[in-house]
Amino acid sequence: MRRRLDPAEPAESGLLQPVPAADRFHFIDLLIEATSDLGTRPGRLLMTLAGTVLGIGALVATLGFAQTTAGQLARQFDAFAATQVVASPAQAQNADGNSVATASLPWDAVERMERLAGVEQAALVTEVKLRDGTVTAVPVNDPSAPVSAPPRVFAASAGLVDTLEGTVRHGRLFDAGHDQRHDRVAVLGNRLADRLGITRVDSQPSIFIDGLPYAVVGVFSDVQQRSELLESVVISTGAARTDFGLSAPGEIQARIVIGAGPQIADQAALSLSPDAPEHIDVAAPRGQSQLAGNIQADVNLIFVVLSVVVLLAGGVGIANVTMLSVMERTGEIGLRRAIGATRRQIAAQFVAESVIIGLLGGILGAAAGVFAVIAISLSQQWTPILNPLVSCGGALLGALVGLVAGGFPARKATGIEPVAALRGS
């Protein structure tokens, strides 16, 4: 009669050679064994999943909020900053250590700038140095009035406020005709107008710049790129040349289409100063704003650390529950070992159980994080931004946490001897 021998048993002379037993424990059997105990204690399973769900959810939500916030801020930033170009003469230090311009802009700089492809509108703007430094809303100097710093005065060509995408609060802006006739007209920033008590222009109010009367024709606001203009007086370049001896434009401000910054940066200096383009400095936006990346990195640094801490707590919870499961199922492990289960199969069972718990927690956590990003973004009327790899990676990270957490309990289970386990049970 033929008999099957244990592979480890030495073959006796005259007997048949041992035939190795086929391993009938397949992957499906492993999954059945690993999941058979999960549903028996739903309360414990939920408590075990809580740490992983919170950790993965916080991690996914953090990355999603960082990307959404960065995209929102970058969109608002790019909507204005990516359309503004400033060109001015280069500065150099003289023998006294003072900065002086190495060149000057031409008076027809606006026409030259607007001929470039991608430039929508341009305007000259120059700060005017006053002789007496006085700007008042009354012609009489009151010695008893408190002393305050005089507002700054800027000379500009027509279209400066439009170039800066500002808005007119009262009245109107001066035009090219005022500039050509050197009319003494002025527009005020809304902050200065409030300080001077000018709230309407239909009564033809005037201000006195170095004692010269200027009719206030309008009040403007919302010039984001040049916020100092909100507390300043803006007069025409023609009037500044006549009354204050303005010799050359200080700089030119231009509004361009989004994406034309690198091209304008290369062409503007050559257009404004063909003989010496190196003497013109051009500040133009880059092709792509780096604000989103910077904000995302700053926000991630803190919250990702917190998410990892919570995730580690979830991993410890999985390890504790798996270890408790090993202790409770000592008799079952001994019985399985006695009927032929190998140490490797026992270890694989508990590792698979931990991985399944971690994967389930990762899926639930990633779903919770995505839902949180979408819900809050919709409530704030933002556009939710979340990389799909983040949510998929969150689920896989949960499985990885379960794999690491199940290592020690699985090793503990493989050390159980069948005889001792059956005797103890």
Provide a short characterization of the protein structure:
The protein has 425 residues and is of the alpha+beta class. The protein is built from 14 helices and 13 strands. It is 49% helix and 16% strand.
Structure description:
It is a single chain. With 425 residues, the protein is α+β, with helices and mostly antiparallel strands. 49% of the residues lie in helices and 16% in strands. The protein is built from 14 helices and 13 strands. Strands 1, 4, 5, 6, 7, 8, 9, 10, 11, 12 and 13 form an 11-stranded mixed beta sheet that branches. It has a two-stranded antiparallel sheet with strand order 2-3. A hairpin with a 2-residue loop joins strand 9 and strand 10 (212-221). It starts with 26 loop residues before the first helix and ends with a helix. The relative contact order is 0.18. Residues 1-22 have low confidence and may be disordered.
Structural class: alpha+beta
Alpha-carbon distance between the two ends: 37 Å
Q: Tell me the strand percentage band.
A: 15-25%
Summarize the main sheet. 11 strands, mixed
Summed up, the helix count is 14
> Share of helix among residues?
40-55%
Q: Any idea what the shape is?
A: elongated
Order of helices and strands: HHEEEHEEEHEHEHEEEHEHEHHHHHH
Q: How many beta-strand runs?
A: 13
The parts where pLDDT drops under 50 for at least 5 residues are: 1-22
> On the 0-100 scale, what is the average pLDDT?
79
The value of Rg in angstroms is: 38 Å
